Amino acid sequence: MKISGPVSVCILKHDDKHIILWGDKHGDKRSYCRCKGNQKDCKFISAFVLEIKDRYDLFIESPWYSQEEKRQLIGKQFVEVNAMRAIANTFFQDMYFHRINSKATSKRVHFTDIRTENTIRPLTDVVNAIMNIVYGVSDTQGNLSWIETLQKYSTTQKLKRFVNHIMKDKEHKIHKQILKLPRGEQQLVRKFHKDMCRMLLSSTRAYDNSHYRLFNVEQKDYTEDMLNVLNNLLIWLSHLKDIYTICRMLFYMHKTHIVMSYDGDYHSQVYKFFFTEYLSRTTQVYEHKSSNTRCVVIPSHYLHEVFPKTPV
């Protein structure tokens, strides 16, 4: 079967459970595939998921909301500019009602982009402000508080300390989610976090120099340094999002046999790395990456194995 929207799919198996990782290409405003020939053979990801008869949990890289925020957003939708927004709109109501109807429904939907949470949001605002400046999305002169926030995080070590603080904060959603896991899985997540921080420190060292030049060296064009700071901030904040999503997936794997995620392809690869390298008895069953067509192919026999109750 050909499924349009994602640019990659990876199917993993852990004991009698399946993990399906859908990868999206952020920034690509094309929601549907660009396959040559007859596109009627391609089914959009939302339509495919809606037809699944088996019980599942779906985790979408869309802004996380508190229960009060969810109530205020009932009936509203995102502007559909890409596949990620389209699938978020499809399951927007399920995001709220899954806690109420979880025992009666065959699906649960979770929005997992924790980077909108209040403690993390100041740095997320920095990311958004730099993106607006570099890519000319909008005028950011109205609110310059993000500059003060950026000044506080002048080195990668300070970013690491911020991330570690979030991980240890007993009142934070991420820490609480870790504590919901069995002790053995808690240890796996913390080891993964430690290993990833070590890797991120080595891969984001250029952040320090670019940050210094932005505030201390007069330049004709600051674009290169701003992009460098932006990319490195995204990497560290993505790590928090990945930890949270991985913990959520592990938690619900004890409740269902199928967990799926629809995230940026970078995140999907991180999840694949965690599950195959840290969670024992997990193997890769199938993987497919598209060549800029926003369409992935899954052979029917794999679909029958993962979704035995669903006609394919």
Strand order of the largest sheet: 6-5-7-3-2-8
**Order of helix and strand elements from N to C terminus:** EEEEHEHHHEHHHHHHHEHEEH
Q: What share of residues is helical?
A: 40-55%
Number of helices: 13
Shape: globular
Low-confidence stretches: none
Residue fraction in strands: 15-25%
Counting structural domains, the number is 1
Radius of gyration: 20 Å
* Mean pLDDT metric: 86
List the quaternary state of the chains.
Answer: single chain
Structural class: alpha/beta
β-strand number:
9
Largest beta-sheet details: 6 strands, mixed
Distance between the termini: 8 Å
Report what the structure shows.
This protein has one domain. It contains 13 helices and nine strands. The protein has helices spanning 45-50, 67-73, 83-90, 92-101, 121-135, 145-152, 156-168, 173-179, 183-203, 206-216, 223-253, 265-277, 300-306; strands at residues 2-4, 8-14, 17-24, 42-44, 56-63, 107-113, 258-264, 282-289, 295-297. The strands form two sheets. Strands 6-5-7-3-2-8 form a six-stranded mixed beta sheet, sandwiched between helices. The chain has a three-stranded mixed beta sheet with strand order 4-1-9. Helix 5 (121-135) packs across helix 11 and helix 10 packs across helix 11.
